[in-house]
């Protein structure tokens, strides 16, 4: 069946009866699904909120990019909080039991 259907072709299918019309409609629906590479027959309306669309229908937005590594670049001088000039007290904390 051709992708485009003329009025004359539609009338010929209609003249063949109810089963022929149903078959033609199902074939066209299948061709649309295959053309758009949609899984199954799920066609999302553009006005459908993102949270209501199945995950497998949504486009992958990461575009193959990875997140940046945290911290400074290699070779750059590090940065940290400076040691205090005066330490008032030193407290030793001991575990009440073995962590293992």
- Fraction of residues in helices? 25-40%
Distance between the termini: 71 Å
The overall pLDDT average reads: 80
Q: What form results from the Cα inertia axes?
A: rod-shaped
Q: Would you list the SSEs in sequence order as H and E?
A: HH
Q: Strand tally, please?
A: 0
Report the portion of residues in β strands. under 5%
Main sheet summary = none
Coarse structural class: mainly alpha
Number of helices: 2
Rounded to the nearest angstrom, the radius of gyration is 33 Å
As residue ranges, the low-confidence spans are: none
What features would you describe in this structure?
With 100 residues, this protein is an all-alpha fold. It has two helices and no strands. Helix 1 packs across helix 2. The mean pLDDT is 80.
Characteristics of this structure?
2 helices; rod-shaped; 0% strand
Summarize the structure.
With 100 residues, the chain is an all-alpha fold. The protein contains 2 helices and no strands.
Describe the secondary-structure layout.
Elements: H1 7-16, H2 18-36
Helix pairs in contact: 1-2
């Amino acid at each position: 069946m051709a992708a485009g259907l003329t009025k004359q072709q539609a009338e010929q299918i209609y003249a063949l009866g109810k089963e022929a019309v149903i078959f033609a409609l199902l074939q066209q629906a299948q061709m649309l699904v295959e053309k758009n590479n949609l899984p199954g027959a799920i066609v999302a309306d553009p006005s459908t909120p993102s949270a209501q669309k199945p995950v497998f229908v949504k486009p992958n937005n990461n575009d193959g990019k990875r997140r940046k590594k945290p911290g400074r670049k290699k070779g750059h001088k590090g940065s940290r909080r400076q040691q205090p000039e005066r330490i008032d007290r030193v407290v030793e904390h001991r575990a009440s039991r073995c962590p293992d």
